[in-house]
Amino acid sequence: MANKSDGGNKKTSGSSAKKKSGGKSTTKANVNRVVKAAKKYDTSKNFKENKDALTGIVAATATSASRASNKKQKKFFIVLTVILIIAFVVIGCVGYYKGWFDPLIISDNTLKFNSNTYDVAAIKNEQLSIHFLELGNNFTGDSVYIKAGETDILIDAGSRAGSAETIAEYVDNYCTDNKLEYVIATHAHQDHIAGFVGTKEAQGIFDRYECENIIQFSRTNATSQVYKDFCAKRDQAQQKGANVYTALDCVNNANGAQKVYDLTGDGSVTMEILYQKYYEQETSNENNYSVCVLITQGDNHYLLTGDLEDSGETSLVNSNPDLPEVQLYKGGHHGSYTAASASLLHKIKPQCICICCCAGSVEYTKKLENTFPAQKFINRIAPYTDAVYVTTVGEIEKNGDSYKDVGFASLNGNIVYACTNGQVSMYFSESDVKLKDTEWFKNNRTCPSSWK
Ligand SMILES: [Ca+2]
Ligand SMILES: [Zn+2]
Fold it and tell me: Is the pLDDT of residue 5 over 90?
């Protein structure tokens, strides 16, 4: 009898262990029930009678434990579901803002334009034209000429002192008064400012043209000779009457500078200097000092950010909540994998991208996938547009374990984006082939799914 009673106690203590899962108060209640049951054990009755009497109590205990366990499980799943929903919403919001999901979208906003034979007279008749210049060497460098009505703008001047010659030869087709109303130097790297300086034999841009307004980077860490020469030539231009402003002067409407310039006198085309924090803050990355320019023509917007990289782009996006979607974007930093970040692209959703670079040149990197325009850059822009054009293509040769630059050729050549009364036209001095359809691309890059 005692053994059987022990057995009965063992059973109830087993149930009691199970009850632990039912929460503290339930466990306590069930323990009480079992204690009560044990107290009701009547030694005057035989085991079967006792068993029958106590089964009800034990069964109630077991049911209660199972109910408590179910309740706990239910609670667990409700909490899990709530956590998952919150995580989903948070990741969704952050991802949408950061553009993590953009590669899933195939954009249908690719630019529709007339592709015309390169024709100076026709381009001159356009209300606005933006020219991405081919600089005639295998070095990467930026130079963009813009004509808005009678106003001439030059943004950067190529990578070599001699680039000035190439630039002037081109610009003189359009600028007939030898006066550049606006000259912008985005940052102090050689591939952007060398042509402003010139050589003993060939005048630089500052000497060659009357420069009415010079807008330059607010900060620099540069100590190079080309930078010193740039400063000397800029000062000479200032003595001859040029207004010299920094980008920070412009965004603050300070020292005579303006944030927004009316380029045509009737407000039909404006140029705005956009704020980004590296106009004021120091950085070891010179590229992030780049002056950012937004040209607006009616409902159309064109964005040029020099060599701005990820961190500068983040600041640009955060500081300019009204930054619009753009019809044209100058491929940031020559198409480097460090520019055109997902958050910038998500904001501006470019319909056309023009890149000043020598495609595939190993001047800046020996890693072939990172040569301009880099594979990662291409992967990020592809969902927005396949209207991507590049001025020049390089030729490289194997050199031991590495590669060297051995030549160059025009890819699209000089690229002109023009717009008159809302009608966009593009002109190419060499070819109108999209990047994705070039031999260089087929041989050197993996085609993103949105371009297939
Ligand atoms: Ca002029
Ligand atoms: Zn550059």
Answer: no
